[in-house]
Amino acid sequence: MASFYCYSLLLLLGLVSQAVATNLSRDFYSCTCPKLQPIVKKGVAEAIKKEARIGASILRLHFHDCFVNGCDASILLDDTGSFIGEKTAAPNNNSARGFNVIDDLKADVEKACPGVVSCADILTLAARDSVVLLGGPYWEVPLGRRDSTTASRLAANRSIPAPSLNLTNLISNFASHGLSVEDLVALSGAHTIGLARCVQFRPHIYNDSDIDASFAKSLQSKCPRRGNDNVLAPLDFQTPTCFDNLYFKHLLVKKGLLHSDQELFRGSSSTDKLVTKYASDTDAFFKDFAEGMIRMSKIKPLTGTKGQIRINCRKVN
Ligand code: HEM
Ligand SMILES: *[C@@H]1O[C@H](CO)[C@@H](O)[C@H](O)[C@H]1NC(C)=O
Ligand SMILES: *[C@@H]1O[C@H](CO)[C@@H](O)[C@H](O)[C@H]1NC(C)=O
Ligand SMILES: *[C@@H]1O[C@H](CO)[C@@H](O)[C@H](O)[C@H]1NC(C)=O
Ligand SMILES: *[C@@H]1O[C@H](CO)[C@@H](O)[C@H](O)[C@H]1NC(C)=O
Ligand SMILES: *[C@@H]1O[C@H](CO)[C@@H](O)[C@H](O)[C@H]1NC(C)=O
């Protein structure tokens, strides 16, 4: 029965292969790697058990992958003689983490289904599982991405939004990736988990006026004007390992950690209403976040015969 289903599916895919060539689908690996999703979920659960923050780090890796020439696992490539990769780009250097977890997941998947599943799909699934395991929404992940054979530090420098951006620039950055204002606000809700470095939130706590005074003061005590660049603070100061809507509640009382966070709610921002909605309605946030994640995961995927299925996520085959 199962094999008949798979055979029919393959036949159908073959018949319409022209039409679906650039499309992703939930059951892309259902014949070729049926255990994929349980394998990834188990590996992510183990990693989060060791360190809860790693879920946030994996989610951010996926975001930084997709915003640089599409979701093609380019961020996972180490530097080579022919290109400098994305790991040392300004937004990633001393910041992007979780690469070893993806290596472990890839090794487990290779054992079960050698040469079949892309690093880009493994990273996309791991990001979804991280959100779910930390208490956030579940969504079905469209699959069938392939892996890039190159990476670009320049593109990473240029395409990933910086925390110094104002709302206008955040909106246009997301628009340049085909994402809406609603996507910007919902996806920024990822900052309900994880940590940021002093060097990233320093301008906001010293120079901005749209910040709660005592909140700024307590942050200034661990993040001085100079030095301690790598000291960490939670993006959601109350529950940085729970995927909830507190990030938005904090914005309403001027307790966003990054300049870019507080830009979404200034009392005069065009996005104030969305922030207020997500602050009072977790279901609405979860629904829009899941939809935004699916849209983000579809940015310029390599499909069909483009790219390759890397055996080692750090290296081109
Ligand atoms: C809207 C524009 C965004 C800006 C300007 C931004 C900026 C930042 C910055 C500066 C950090 C701290 C990095 C460090 O200190 O090393 C950070 C952390 C993080 N970002 Fe964003 N981000 C944005 C959107 C997103 C999106 C769309 C996602 C995912 C859907 C995301 C997920 C995360 C997570 C989970 C962390 C914590 C990572 C960890 O603890 O390892 N961010 N972000
Ligand atoms: C991908 O799927 C969508 C929706 O099913 C369809 O509208 C579109 O034409 C497809 N694109 C390609 C290139 O197959
Ligand atoms: C990355 O960070 C390391 C360690 O702080 C530093 O030595 C190096 O210059 C940085 N690289 C880039 C490209 O900024
Ligand atoms: C990207 O940014 C890094 C860190 O700021 C800088 O050292 C490097 O020159 C930039 N690289 C390119 C290719 O733009
Ligand atoms: C946002 O920043 C850009 C460039 O940094 C600037 O030109 C623009 O005036 C700013 N917009 C607002 C509304 O502050
Ligand atoms: C605050 O703004 C001033 C003036 O623009 C600038 O010189 C300084 O570097 C900024 N301080 C921080 C911590 O960003």
TrEMBL record:
Residues 23-317 form the Plant heme peroxidase family profile domain. Its EC number is 1.11.1.7. It catalyses: 2 a phenolic donor + H2O2 = 2 a phenolic radical donor + 2 H2O. Heme b binds at H191. Disulfide bonds join C33-C113, C66-C71, C119-C313, C198-C223. It is an enzyme of class 1 (oxidoreductase). Its main location: secreted. GO terms for molecular function: heme binding; lactoperoxidase activity; metal ion binding. This is Peroxidase. One of its GO terms (biological process) is response to oxidative stress. Its cofactor is heme b; Ca(2+). Keywords: Calcium, Disulfide bond, Glycoprotein, Heme, Hydrogen peroxide, Iron, Metal-binding, Oxidoreductase, Peroxidase, Secreted, Signal. It is found in: Secreted. It comes from Acacia crassicarpa. Ca(2+) 1 binds at D65, V68, G70, D72, S74, E86. Binds 1 heme b (iron(II)-protoporphyrin IX) group per subunit. Binds 2 calcium ions per subunit. Removal of H(2)O(2), oxidation of toxic reductants, biosynthesis and degradation of lignin, suberization, auxin catabolism, response to environmental stresses such as wounding, pathogen attack and oxidative stress. These functions might be dependent on each isozyme/isoform in each plant tissue. The active site is at H64. The record marks R60 as: Transition state stabilizer. It comes from the Eukaryota. Ca(2+) 2 binds at T192, D236, T239, D244. Pfam families: peroxidase (PF00141). One of its GO terms (cellular component) is extracellular region. Substrate binds at P161. Residues 1-21 form the signal peptide. PROSITE patterns: PEROXIDASE_1 (PS00435), PEROXIDASE_2 (PS00436), PEROXIDASE_4 (PS50873).
